[in-house]
Amino acid sequence: YPPIKLSVQVQDKHLWIVRDGGAIEAFDLKQNILTEVVVFPFPEDCSVVGIFEHFDDSVFAVSDKGHLAFWSFENPEVELMQIPGVLCVQAVAKVSNFLAVGGKGNQNNLKVFDLKKKQIIYTAKSTMDVRINQAINVDIRAICFTKFDSAEFVATANSNGQIFLYDFSKKSSVSSL
To answer: At a CB cut-off of 8 Å and minimum separation 6, what does 73 contact?
Structure first.
């Protein structure tokens, strides 16, 4: 078996295991058996950086080049699409109908993608380094969604140690170290 790259538990039903080469296995947690092996048709130079539950007992994977591949038990055909303008994904997070991706370089700043509308609804501006008050080339290593005072935020952590909070509903950002 090729090495395991990442895994995620979906709805307490399955453990999804991503292996080198793009093969994705679904392990049924209730029956304790391997139920499916899916190969998402990403280009050969891509790797899977995230796998998430989707609507109607289906899953989708995100590649490091910004591809999305949707798959379900009922419909084994894989739907493949590209997130517009995303060339590098190092970190990815999902909440509700929103997917946040970020990578390295100004072109790969935080983007929030609406999974229902299948379009980008928010793109972060060039990130400012508060210590030198200058735009920097970002290198996003981690992303998560959070709520604060009933507002929806996306938090990103950069390789230089800065954490940024983005209120994507108001198109504003707040930074802190």
So the answer is: 36, 57, 58
Of how many residues is the chain composed? Answer: 177
* Residues 54-104 pLDDT 10s: 776 778 889 999 999 988 878 878 889 999 888 889 999 999 889 999 988
CA 42 to chain centre: 15
pLDDT in tens, 105-151: 766 788 999 998 989 988 876 666 666 666 666 789 999 998 877 77
> 19: which residues sit within 8 A by CB, 6+ positions away?
1, 2, 3, 4, 5, 25
> How far apart are the C-alpha atoms of 67 and 149, rounded to whole Å?
33
CA angle 146, 147, 148 (to 5 degrees): 125
Q: What are the start-end ranges of the E strands in the chain?
A: 4-10, 14-19, 23-28, 33-39, 48-53, 58-63, 67-72, 79-82, 91-95, 98-102, 111-114, 119-123, 128-129, 134-135, 140-148, 151-158, 163-167, 172-176
